[in-house]
Amino acid sequence: MENCIFCKIINQEIPSYKVYEDDKVYAFLDLSQVTKGHTLVVPKQHVADIFEYDEALAADVFARIPKIAKALEKAFPEMEGLNILNNNKELAYQSVFHSHVHLIPRYGKDDDFSIHFGDHSADVSKEDMQAIADAIKEQVN
């Protein structure tokens, strides 16, 4: 894609701190460095988000995640955990519309990164849960 910053990074038109590259993916440090080692894994094929993936692209991209995660763990033995985050569409906080997966090393509870999910289980009946599951199940091909 012509004006895509990640395509320009992949094509070496914009510099990056590359940590991994093969014929399918490119991984580089996120300039924000939410935590030390915060890495983005992007498919070389331009797709806007997860909704544009086919099975082959998903297999190619997500098969590389453990390899890069293990490299982070070896590079930073003080790392205590890792968040894997993928935002899709603007409402879900996607800001660059070339699909990418964040690997965010965690160093402790005070490392300035958190994700909090609210518990809404009391608001949803068993019947509602079954209806939600059925609606999704009908659409899985």
Question: Would you kindly provide a written description of the structure presented here, covering whatever features stand out?
Answer:
- A motif (Histidine triad motif) lies at residues 98-102.
- It comes from Candidatus Enterococcus moelleringii.
- Pfam families: HIT.
- The chain is globular and about 50 Å long.
- A hairpin with a 3-residue loop joins strand 1 and strand 2.
- 29% of the residues lie in helices and 18% in strands.
- It has a 5-stranded antiparallel beta sheet, with helices on one face.
- With 141 residues, it is α+β, with helices and mostly antiparallel strands.
- The protein has one domain (5-139): 2-Layer Sandwich (HIT family, subunit A).
